[in-house]
C-alpha cells in the first residue's frame, strides 16, 4: 500500500519544519508589533434594559 510508505512524505515534512524553524520563524519574531498594548483603564458603560413597545 503506497499510503504506508513514509519515504517521500517524511522528507517533505522534515524539510518544511526545518524551513519554518530556521528561516521563517526568526524573521517573524523579529518584527515589532505596531499596536503596542496600553495601560489605559477601560470605561464601564451603564446599560439600561430594553423597553419593548408592546409590554
UniProtKB/TrEMBL annotation:
TM ranges: 6-24
Record has Cytoplasm as a keyword: no
GO cellular component: mitochondrial membrane; proton-transporting ATP synthase complex
Keyword Kinase: no
One Pfam family named in its UniProt record: ATP-synt_8
InterPro entries for the chain: ATP8_metazoa (IPR001421), ATPase_protein_8 (IPR050635)
Keywords on record: ATP synthesis, CF(0), Hydrogen ion transport, Ion transport, Membrane, Mitochondrion, Transmembrane, Transmembrane helix, Transport
Topology of the protein relative to the lipid bilayer: Single-pass membrane protein
GO molecular function, one term: proton transmembrane transporter activity
Cellular location(s): Mitochondrion membrane
GO biological process annotation, one example: proton motive force-driven ATP synthesis
Main localization category: mitochondrion
Region of interest (Disordered), residue spans: 34-55
Domain of life from the UniProt record: Eukaryota
Family: Belongs to the ATPase protein 8 family.
Protein name per its UniProtKB record: ATP synthase complex subunit 8
Organism: Limosa haemastica
Encoding gene (name): ATP8
Amino acid at each position: 500500500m503506497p499510503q504506508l510508505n513514509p519515504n517521500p512524505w517524511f522528507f517533505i515534512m522534515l524539510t518544511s519544519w526545518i524551513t519554518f524553524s530556521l528561516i521563517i520563524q526568526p524573521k517573524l519574531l523579529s518584527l515589532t508589533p505596531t499596536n503596542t498594548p496600553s495601560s489605559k483603564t477601560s470605561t464601564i458603560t451603564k446599560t439600561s434594559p430594553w423597553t419593548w413597545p408592546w409590554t
